Amino acid sequence: MLGAINQRSDKFILAQRRKGRQEESLSSLHGLGMHTHFIRIAVVLLLCTVTLGPAVADSQTKVLVGLTTLNSRVTPLWIAQEQGFFAKNGLEVLLLLTRVSQPAIAGLIAGELQMVFGGSSAALGAFASGADLKVIAGQTNRLTYDLVARPGLRKPEDLRGKRLGAGAIGGSLWMGAVLALEHLHLDASRDQISIMLVGDQTNNIQALEAGSIDAALLDGVFSHRLKQKGFPVLAELYNANIPFAGQGIVTSRLFLQKHPVIVERFLKGLLEGIDFSLALGNKPIVLKTMTARLKIPDIASAEVGYQDLLRGVEPKPYPSLEALRNVQRLMKAQNPKVGNVKLEELIDDRILRKILGGQKQQTKREY
C-alpha cells in the first residue's frame, strides 16, 4: 500500500508552484545544504526584524524555534509567547515558520535553530541517517485529522479508485493518509487509491475545492469550513485513538548537553502555555490568539479549533514510544535504516520528567 504514490503528483506540485505560493518554497528545496542555506537567510531576516522591533530585556536569551505546521494545537506555543511565560523564564522565543519538517530539521542539525516544534517523523529519519537529535516532548501523540471528501462521496468505501491528497512522503499528512486507509480497511494498491503529494493543508483545501483531488486529511478547524460548503467528513480519526507522533519538540543532543538550563526554561514556559490553554476559564483569550494566528474567519470554526486543542494536546507532553513506533513502521518501508533505530535512544525526556515530577495526572493550573 505504501508504494501506491501516483506519478501525477509531480505534475500537480508543479502546477501549485506556478500559482506563486511563495510560502511553500522551502518544501521544494533538495539537500541538506540547500535547506540550511535558506534557513540561514530566514534566521538573519528574523533577527533583523526583532532587532528593529520593541526593546527586550538584555538578560533574556534568544531561542530560535522552527515551526513546521499551523493548526490549533500550536496555540500553547503562541500563548506562551503572548502571555509572557517564556519571558518569565528568561527567554525570548522566536518562531521561524517552515510549514514542512525537513528544512527545520536541517536548520537544527546545522545549528541555525535551537529547537523544532513538530517534525518528529523527520527527526526519526535524520536520526536513522546519523544526525544526533533528541525528542524531548510530545505535545500530540494520536492522529487527530478529519477525512474530508468532495460532494458526492458519502462513505469511506467511495474512495476506491479516487485521489487522496497528502503531503511529502514521510510527512505527517502522508502518514496520516496511510494510517487512515488502514483504519478504514482500505488499501491504496488493492483499491486503486492514488495518494497525491499535494502539499500542506492549505494546498489540500485548494485542491479539494478545485476538484484536483477527491479527499484529504484536515484538522477540524479547516474541515469545518469545508463541511459548511457541502464537503462531507467521512471519518473523524481522533475518535479512532490511533497512536501517532504528531507535534513533538526536537533539539540536538549537543544543544541539550551544552544548554540544559535553556531547554528546561523553554519547557517550563511551554508547559505554562499548555496549562493556560487547557484551562476553560481562559477560553476567550485562547480563542482570540488562535483566531488571529490561524486567520479563522468565523466563530464556529474557531470553536471547532478550540475543541481540537482540548482533545489533541497532552497535558503532560511526554514523548510516546507507541506513537513513534507507528511512525517508524510506516517510514521504514521508504527508508530501511529507520527500522534499525532504537526509539528509546531518540527520546530524552529527563528534563521534562524533572519538571513534572510528583505532579498528578491533572496538570492544569488556575489563572
Description:
With 367 residues, this protein is of the alpha/beta class. It folds into two domains: 8-21 and 144-240, Periplasmic binding protein-like II (D-Maltodextrin-Binding Protein, domain 2, 3-Layer(aba) Sandwich), CATH 3.40.190; 31-52 and 62-142 and 244-273 and 312-353, D-Maltodextrin-Binding Protein, domain 2 (3-Layer(aba) Sandwich), CATH 3.40.190.10. The chain is built from 16 helices and ten strands. The protein has helices at residues 8-18, 32-52, 75-82, 85-88, 101-109, 120-128, 172-183, 201-210, 220-228, 253-258, 260-278, 283-294, 299-312, 321-331, 343-346, 350-356, and strands at residues 61-67, 91-97, 115-117, 133-138, 146-149, 163-166, 194-197, 215-218, 233-236, 248-252. The strands form two sheets. The chain has a five-stranded mixed sheet with strand order 2-1-3-10-4, with helices on both faces. Strands 7-6-8-5-9 form a five-stranded mixed sheet, with helices on both faces. Helix 7 links the parallel strand 6 and strand 7. It is globular, with a radius of gyration of 20 Å. The N and C termini lie far apart (48 Å). The model is unreliable at 1-32, 47-56 and 360-367 (pLDDT under 50).
- Give the class-level CATH name of the largest domain: Alpha Beta
Summarize the amount of helix as a percent range.
Answer: 40-55%
> Unreliable segments (pLDDT under 50, ≥5 consecutive)?
1-32, 47-56, 360-367
The CATH architecture designation of the largest domain is: 3-Layer(aba) Sandwich
Which structural category do the helix and sheet elements fall into? alpha/beta
Estimated radius of gyration: 20 Å
**Helix/strand order, N-terminal first:** HHEHHEHEHEEEHEHEHEEHHHHHHH
CATH topology label of the largest domain: D-Maltodextrin-Binding Protein, domain 2
Count of DSSP strands: 10
Strand coverage percent:
5-15%
Main β-sheet description: 5 strands, mixed
Strand order of the largest sheet: 2-1-3-10-4
Enumerate how many helices there are, as a single number: 16
